[in-house]
Write a structure and sequence with these properties.
By secondary structure, the chain is an alpha+beta fold. The protein is 39% helix and 18% strand. It has helices spanning 64-88, 93-113; strands at residues 3-7, 14-19, 29-32, 43-45, 48-50.
């Protein structure tokens, strides 16, 4: 069974490696020899294959549960600040509006994480 590397003609990057039932002719399919270890991501350029350097994986961020916990704490803290501002009679309308906007933003982030944003 012949092996072929399918490449993106614009970049030369291998998209897939396939075992086919028969031979084919196509601009984006390159026949591979038995000893060629071509993998998706390899690049065909100037008649030869190169394997790009592997970039390190990014550090994982907080899980959805951790993000929810953080946002719930921010929501609680902002709610407390809003109540304290209203109770102190020192808060002006601008400060109260700012706290309400902050509450709305945190709430919207929670909805997105929890799948409530469609």
């Amino acid at each position: 069974m012949p092996r072929y590397a399918q490449i993106d003609l614009d970049t030369g990057r291998c998209i897939s490696v396939s075992l086919l039932a028969g031979e084919i002719e196509s601009d984006h399919m390159f026949p591979l020899g038995d000893n060629e270890e071509i993998q998706p991501g390899d690049i065909y350029m100037d008649g030869g294959w190169t394997r790009p350097d592997q970039e390190p994986l990014p550090e994982p961020g907080p899980s959805a549960e951790e993000r929810i916990t953080i946002l719930e704490q921010q929501l609680t803290d902002t709610q407390i600040a809003l109540v304290e501002s209203c109770e102190s009679n020192l808060a002006d309308k601008k400060e109260i509006t700012s706290l309400q906007v902050a509450l709305t933003e945190v709430y919207e982030q929670l909805l997105v994480i929890m799948g409530g944003d469609s």
